[in-house]
Specification:
138 residues; mainly alpha; two-stranded antiparallel ribbon; 6 helices; 2 strands
Length: 138
């Protein structure tokens, strides 16, 4: 905003004051700045991906282009992307199903030798409502 204000002969403080008293104008300024960033990012992206200009001559120039793109358009050029997932997964089994699954799993494991205890033991823990809440495999 400082250089834009200087180009039209005002101080940046004057533009900020105007923006506070004329929010619709400030919204248009914000949209124009966003469009300017989009255009500049597109221009730099073209230079970077076509190898035009200094990018062929100096590898530092390529690094500078990437840095500028990350600042102008972080949603497109950021190294990190945040992914938010919400909700839950709920899956219910009947106690008989769990017992069958435990038996199938135990059948796949090597059995205990003479005088040894079973490798897999499971128990079903009932909740307050009397329904199976938890399966504990030890």
């Amino acid at each position: 905003m400082v250089s834009a204000a200087a180009q039209i002969g005002y101080s940046h403080a004057t533009l900020y004051d105007w923006g506070r008293t004329h929010p619709e104008w400030w919204l248009e300024v914000a949209e124009a700045r966003a469009e300017g960033k989009r255009r500049r990012a597109a221009e730099l992206s073209g230079v970077l991906f076509t190898g035009a200009g200094k990018a062929d001559e100096d590898p530092r120039y390529t690094t500078q282009l990437i840095f500028a793109l990350k600042n102008l358009s972080p949603e497109d050029y950021s190294d990190r992307h945040d992914v938010n997932v919400s909700g839950g997964i709920q899956h219910e089994h009947q106690a008989e199903d769990v017992e069958r699954l435990l038996d199938d799993l135990a059948a796949q494991l090597p059995g205990p030798g003479p005088g040894e205890q079973s490798v897999l033991e499971g128990r079903i823990v009932a909740g307050e409502d009397g329904e199976a809440d938890t399966v504990v495999i030890e």
